[in-house]
Design brief:
Elements: H1 2-11, H2 15-33, H3 41-55, H4 70-79, E1 85-89, H5 95-104, E2 109-113, H6 120-129, E3 135-138, E4 141-142, E5 149-150, E6 152-153, E7 161-162, E8 171-174, H7 176-183, E9 189-192, H8 198-203, H9 206-212, E10 215-220, H10 226-233, E11 236-240, E12 260-266, E13 281-287, E14 291-293, E15 299-301, E16 305-307, E17 310-319, E18 326-333, E19 336-343, H11 345-351, E20 354-359, E21 363-373, E22 380-388
Parallel strand pairs: 1-2, 1-9, 2-3, 4-8, 9-10
Antiparallel strand pairs: 5-8, 6-7, 10-12, 11-12, 13-22, 14-15, 15-21, 16-21, 17-20, 17-22, 18-19, 18-21
Length: 401
């Protein structure tokens, strides 16, 4: 029991979440203490496991800053407005459905889809905790046709995927075209992250793509451009949300080996989209000597850099080969972390050196890389560039969120 409690607390992401988990544990323990004398240790353990299944991956409170996939957060921020209809395909723990819910407001409608039997309870728990009254959650695998069944393989984290031959309970499929025809809900924006099943989902959305023309944020691997090809053929343009560069082929990605988040915009909406404005203005080049280094090898800008409000790309310049470590890397503004990646140094150096920051007011920024565990003698920190994205100067933030 002690290990179960500790495991739950370790997964919490902040002080508020720790308090929330303690309260949930207190409720469960009180319920167990009231159980009949004949209750077995097995039934008590099952009760704790039930709690762990649904509450072991809590989100931040809706009024607190979220660092969950920040580049996608900005795309949601810029495209979901009060009264909108938006879809979260691959809702996972519910972070983006929660964000969409707050931005669409009481007259908006959010449809969230999660296929994994292992994850769906967590999604439901987090959306209820956040009081997302305008979100409807569906336990369906978005696919090329409705009425089939697929099996879901568990990933190493919350990254379960459709896999032929996987065990477990079969999950029914749903084509978005069929869902829209049945509900009359046509989204203006879709976030889709379903661990490699995006192509099948797009094949089941042909009418939506041709007639509804939503803006879409999708995961895309540079070595599999089939989603890109399908959407470009349908009259869409693509932008890498990590680097804000146009994507016309796999070689255009700044991150050539991992997965990238890509914004797809219909051609007829391109002129109004700041994401398709190619201007990137160099504000400052911060040399290695401008950063302090700690004993583990981490780096931090010694003197905060003052910037006016706007959107910026901080492009870190470093290489590393270490894998037996854990780091945070990103940007602080006025003492608060506003952008952060979390992985090991070799992967960070290969895939995540572009950090996008939105400042809604003038601020003092500090780029950083900080070790949580271990160190890396191969880390070669060479500095960073700060680049302004002027097209976003006229993009208003959500009025209420």
């Amino acid at each position: 029991m002690r290990q179960t409690i500790l495991a739950i607390l370790r997964r919490a992401t902040g002080t508020a979440q720790l308090r929330q988990q303690v309260a949930l544990l207190e409720e469960e323990v009180a319920r167990l203490l009231q159980a009949p004398r004949g209750s077995t240790a097995g039934s008590r353990h099952a009760a704790l496991e039930r709690l762990a299944r649904h509450a072991d991956f809590p989100l931040q409170a809706w009024w607190e800053r979220s660092l969950w996939e920040p580049v996608v957060q900005l795309a949601v921020r810029d495209h979901v407005r009060p009264g909108d209809i938006a879809f979260d395909v691959g809702a996972n723990a519910g972070a983006f459905a929660l964000q969409m819910s707050r931005q669409a407001g009481p007259r908006g409608t959010i449809c969230a889809f999660e296929a994994s039997p292992r994850i769906i309870g967590r999604t439901q728990h987090n959306l209820l905790q956040a009081a997302c009254h305008n979100v409807t959650l569906y336990h369906r695998a978005i696919w090329n046709r409705s009425g089939d069944f697929v099996h879901i393989a568990e990933g190493s984290h919350l990254n379960d995927r459709v896999e032929t031959g996987a065990g477990g309970i079969p999950v029914p499929t749903l084509a978005l075209d069929d869902f829209i025809a049945a509900t009359g809900l046509t989204p203006s924006f879709i976030k889709m992250d379903i661990e490699g099943a995006e192509l099948e989902a797009l094949r089941g959305s042909a009418r939506l793509i041709a007639e509804g023309r939503p803006i879409m944020a999708l995961e895309q691997a540079p070595d599999d451009m089939r989603c890109h090809e399908l959407l470009v053929a349908a009259g869409y343009l693509a932008v890498d949300l990590g680097s804000y560069k146009r994507i016309t082929r796999g070689e255009d990605f700044a991150n050539p080996t991992g997965v990238n988040n890509v914004l797809f915009v219909p051609e007829e909406k391109a002129a109004a989209s700041p994401y398709l404005d190619p201007r990137q203005e160099l504000v400052a080049k911060l040399e290695a000597g401008a950063f302090t280094r700690d004993a583990a090898g981490g780096a931090r800008l010694a003197q905060p850099m003052e910037l006016p409000a706007g959107r910026y790309l901080v492009r870190a310049d470093f290489s590393a080969q270490g894998r037996d470590n854990e780091v945070y890397a990103g940007v602080e503004a006025d003492g608060e972390t506003v952008f952060r990646y979390h992985t090991f140094t070799a992967f960070m150096a290969e895939c995540y050196r572009d950090w996008v920051v939105q400042l809604d007011r003038p601020g003092r920024i500090v780029p950083f890389l900080r070790f949580l565990n271990g160190s890396d003698a191969t880390l070669d920190w060479r500095g960073a560039e700060v680049i302004r994205l002027p097209a976003f100067d006229t993009v208003a933030p959500p009025l209420v969120f």
